[in-house]
Design goal:
Helix 2 packs antiparallel against helix 3 and helix 2 packs antiparallel against helix 5. The protein has one domain. It is mostly helical. The chain starts with 7 loop residues before the first helix and ends with a helix.
Length: 93
């Protein structure tokens, strides 16, 4: 099977993944907030912030807000924004 030939089941799994990508990335950010609060050294925090940056890009967070969050490097600021995003996501359902 070549990489581009997927079974109907695989195509369905891939389609559902991309349909739920926002929810997946929001959950990932929730986990990252927790890890940031628990991080015990600067090296670990820096790696976590790099992961936060990638997740924010995947979520298509506006560049201004994304830069604000990343410049502040505050788990509290990220958590407040995340709470708002989750609230909006729940209203859409």
């Amino acid at each position: 099977m070549s990489p581009k030939e997927y079974s109907p089941y695989q195509q369905d799994v891939i389609r559902r993944y991309y349909q739920n990508l926002d929810a997946i990335k929001l959950q990932e950010l929730q986990e990252l907030v927790t890890e940031l609060f628990l991080a015990d050294n600067d090296r670990r925090r820096e790696k976590l912030w790099q992961r936060v940056q990638k997740a924010l890009q995947k979520l298509a967070v506006p560049p201004g807000l994304r830069e604000h969050i990343l410049q502040r490097r505050s788990a509290e600021v990220l958590a407040e924004n995340l709470r708002d995003w989750l609230r909006r996501a729940n209203r859409r359902r």
